[in-house]
Amino acid sequence: MGRCQCSFYLSFAFLFMCSIGWISLPPVNAALKQYQFDIQVKNVSRLCHAKPIVTVNGMFPGPTVYVREGDRVQINVTNFAQYNMSIHWHGLKQYRNGWADGPAYVTQCPIQTGQSYTYDFNVTGQRGTLWWHAHIFWLRATVYGAVVIMPKQGMPYPFPQPDFEFNLILGEWWNDDVEEVVKQGKKLGLPPRMSDAHTINGKPGPLFPCPEKYTYAVEVEQGKSYLLRIINAALNDELFFAIAGHNLTVVEIDAVYTKPFSTDAILVAPGQTTNVLVHANEVSGRYFMAARPFMDAPLSIDNKTATAILQYKGIPNTALPSLPNLPAPNDTAFALGYNAKLRSLNSPQFPANVPLKVDRHLFYTIGLGIIPCPTCQNGTQLTASLNNITFIMPRIGLLQAHYFNLTGVFTTDFPDRPSTPFNYTGAPLTANLRTSQSTRPRLSKIAFNSTVELVLQDTNLLSVESHPFHLHGYNFFVVGSGVGNFDPKKDPTNYNLVDPPERNTVGVPTGGWTAIRFRTDNPGVWFLHCHLELHTSWGLKTAFVVENGPGLDQTILPPPKDLPSC
User: Fold this and answer.
1) Nearest-5° angle of CA 41, CA 45, CA 50?
2) What's the whole-number mean pLDDT along residues 220-230?
3) pTM
4) Which UniProt keywords apply (predicted)?
5) CA nearest to 16, candidates 313, 323, 265, 232
6) What SS3 state is found at 524?
7) Fewest CB atoms less than 10 Å from the CB: which of 142, 151, 153, 352?
């Protein structure tokens, strides 16, 4: 299949095909979809700077994976780069098949240089927009792409059929080698230097240097409707997104249909996806699509705005685009209000099966900390924790250790709640910031088919901050959220147990809490982590060991023969 480079001068048809990654789509009736992913280093230039980056098939962003609900997918990954590699298929549930989930040292050992591994999985009961990305080091800065799951043949969308659709992947760009930036931060015991730009489909847009080559554009036709599949692949920034002069109708989040609503802008946290309908019914012209960060905590971020162009057919490239009115970078009210509007469709065809009875209550506090670091320039380094426990990465895959009953790799004594309650969101806490670090990862074991409620509570250890949390292997229902300390007596009375949003990644509000519910019907070892890469690397993560069920179809599948070794 061919590849293309988008520009202002292409016809709409070609622009549409380019915007979704490939010129030709797979056959619509195919039951087996096969892809070859070659991990390659390629020289790429942005912001007038050229550097080698890690890519899939030399593409940045990488190729779109097109499948249909019910398909079997085989993606062979061959690693030609100098780094170990693993790929995570973000949001795909991988029922009984954690071997295909991808996080390095959790469900597999990484694919070493010169080696290959085939991710073999079924797409069952899911349709919509997801994505894939590297799940080792900070390599997902450039190793990422979209996953588009079409509904079963003959199954329409539960919203007006769009005339066309295209993907918009939001990301970050560093002028320097990202892994070297991270190493420098570790030497200092401080956060790595922030990114130099945000991008839309790998391009920063005309508000940055050297914009001629580095602006993504799509041509639209007056009176037509478009489905935009929007993915936040940024490493560390929640992003607002808007299109000048156009409303967005939200119809799906994290590959789950929603009750449609119209908005001037959306908020997408790292790891999240949002599908919106846009009608090209404004005055013909050129309009900026723009993305910039949301940050309502006293922390430094890359606050630059990435732009792309929505261009009506027949309008010359010389026409100056107009910018949208994005929310202010610290607009907490918009962020909370937008998330409050999200509701599952909860129709007879797409019900919201919210667990009403809870078997296991979990309460996890999110904190930052400082630990001694003799090799760091400052003698200390920043760290992060859940329930004051900093996760220690193992040297072999946790799923292998669980499946083969290997001893000494991990423990299952992760606490259901913090050992010492405190005023989590009161005045900033700057004393006693050391976190617990054991020699082995501490996990939480959960019985098969249990119903779980997990409350994620932000704290003011060093600083409050919004945290997008991703759970592998499952979707969950966001039944409640609030600012301040969670009140176990009062707050559950306000839960939405009828049509709460269903997703795989949720933002915990700054200085607040989020409650999620899910049923543990997928046996395996499933990662739970903050999707800010900075915090994940500091240890803001854990994993659930979900036990096998009683039936043969409720147990972990055997590992594939080509599973990488450590």
Assistant:
1) 75
2) 98
3) 0.94
4) Apoplast, Copper, Glycoprotein, Lignin degradation, Metal-binding, Oxidoreductase, Repeat, Secreted, Signal
5) 313
6) strand
7) 153
